[in-house]
Amino acid sequence: MTRLTLLLSALLIASLALVTAGQAPTAAPFTAEQAAAGRTAYETTCVGCHGANLAGPPALAGTSFRVGWGSRTTRDLLTAIQAMPPEQPGGLAEGTYLAIAAYILQFNGAAAGPQALTANTAVPIGSFLTAGPAQPGGQAPGGRGAGPAAQPAGAQAAGARGRGQPAAPVLGLTVAGEIPTYARVTDEMLRNPPPGDWPMLRRDQAASDFSPLNQITRDNVAQLQLAWVAPMSEGGTNQPSPLAHDGVIFLNNSNGIIQALDGRSGDLIWEQRLGVNPAMRGMSLYDDKLFLALSNAHLVALDARTGKVAWDVAMPDGRGSSSGPLLAKGKVIQGMGGCSAYVEQKCFISGYDAATGKQLWRFHTVAIDGQPGGDSWGALSSLYRAGGETWITGSYDPDLNLTYWGTAQAKPWMPVSRGMYGLDKGLYTSATVALDADTGKLAWHFQHAPGEALDLDVVFERVLVDSGGQNMVFTVGKDGVLWKLDRKTGKYLGHKETVFQNVWESIDVKTGAPRYRQDIIDAEVGQWIDGCPSTEGGHNWQAMSHNRTSNSLVIPLSQSCIAIRAQRIEQKPGGGSAGGADRRFYEMPGTDGNIGRLAAFDVTTLAEKWAIQQRAPFLTAVLSTAGNVAFVGDLDRSFKAIDMTNGKVLWQTRLATSVQGFPITFTADGRQYIAVTTGLGGGSPRLVPSTLAPEIRVPTTGQALYVFALPEKR
């Protein structure tokens, strides 16, 4: 499990009622057996990030935990833990999450009792925690940004490095500053940004990851030099999505740190420490604010000029996500992760007023009885229908006023584990849904993987392309199939298999309806099933780019296969599982062990124009430019510039650790820069290659933002 940064609440409690030392502790609502199981689970999945003593950073024990969580409930704690890991929220069985929560509480002094912790338990944590030693130098009471928090960035009490309890986290505006020339970002600027800007994830509402800048070209890119580098917060999953506006970079770090940097020098303008991890994949500028989502299911708007919190709202019934919001027509549209539990409240996509954070609408991604699509789940009752996460940010067509989102598969992964037959579709999972941005009403849907059976969901980016008189939406999923749909109607227009796949027996050439191999449809509990690609995904969160100059899609792909077998998952309220399957990975046939693949496809014909392969997987989105260059980074620390005409590597450099996140390009004082981040943590795109290519060793520190430019003219 990656770093549970959301366990450090930013709301510090002034009057925390703790049981005094010496009194008999109040029994907590968990059993000794749960805590013992939680210790085993923690040591298996969490200790690599948080340490055996839960010291972090961020700390899951001591004053930081008690102050941050004393007035909140066990249900809040469970919800926070279930939002992990960021790349696959809800990836553990609910019983495992409950056990980990019990262990964390026990480690912090809570005494086990006869009552088991359940998903419905909501007991204030402060009512049964024992008091710890007072923490000198603590922050004054108040919310985010309140009190005397203006200590230097990174300031810590000595106890954080030595013995004793770790220091309380330094929260709020830790570096004060202002961007005096900040210009408000309009709807038109999100649709068609100024050439030197990158105001949102993937640059524009079409999710193109394309820049019209052309100072850096295929002819001069080999001259790129490092302009500056800014170290980033170490620890936690780091897949940042920097933004740029008028020569200023806005950077999201792990550990809840948001910064504004001078694009020319890297000098820090302001820094806000929220105390809760932001969704790493995606922020957005709009009007005078910077919008982001937090892993504890809050939406936050910062004043983009100063970094001060403008508003902070909890999403009603929401759950955390690893990707942030889409801004469209004055609305903040946010997806959700952690949807594997058997609960009445299904996950949803939701819209919020950008000025206030007020929730305006919801679209539930799992249909229940009595609703359209509710009859597509076979005999499975509504309570036990789960999944449909929307953990990748969508896109938006302002002319049609439609927003396009991908949904993840039904949970658990394999139909027999969730009590379904292989031909039960399970709407609206593994689909593209087109929603009215004003109301959230479904305009159309196209299901790419009916009854998805092998954790090969199609949840990733929806790229909007206008070409040849057609308005299209493209996506590619873990099965490696590139889909082309009419974005007005959802009509199937074509598909292309981008990597070797053997799970689909056929895809109808008229309707696009796919059909699994019969052995996949008929799979039983305990039966091994082979398939390519693996759950690493032929494609994963590393987004493609629509290069408008060449009218091609450049896609980072991965090549590995799997043997998988279903487990039996008990159907009980509050239970459930994201996976419920055993897995074994192996090399994809015909690849010579090359896991990474980068390929370009013609928008009109879907024909492959070129492809390159390498041992290391690509771990960034693709950035392409009007200079006929594409940029991409990989696990083996390499950042490359690729010739868009033929796939030739034109330039490369090796950075401190693995290169992952979302590269951008921007201008400052008329000079074009290329920015990319290094990072650690992440799910199957890293874990599967570590199994298949253990010789690729990555330093465990070195998270930073690197900025490159051509030599200045003298």
Report on this structure.
It contains eight helices and 41 strands. With 714 residues, the protein is mostly beta strands. The strands form eleven sheets. Strands 1-7-6-5-4 form a five-stranded antiparallel beta sheet, with no helix packed on it. A hairpin with a 4-residue loop joins β9 (289-293) and β10 (298-303). The radius of gyration is 24 Å and the shape is globular.
Could you list some keywords that capture this structure?
29% strand; mainly beta; 8 helices; 41 strands; five-stranded mixed β-sheet; 714 residues; disordered N terminus
Low-confidence blocks of residues: 1-23, 132-166
Record the strand order, biggest sheet.
1-7-6-5-4
Number of helices: 8
Largest sheet: 5 strands, antiparallel
Q: Gap between N and C termini, in Å? A: 51 Å
Give the fraction of residues assigned to helices: under 10%
Structural class: mainly beta
Percent range for β-strand residues: 25-35%
pLDDT averaged residue by residue: 88
Rg over CA atoms: 24 Å
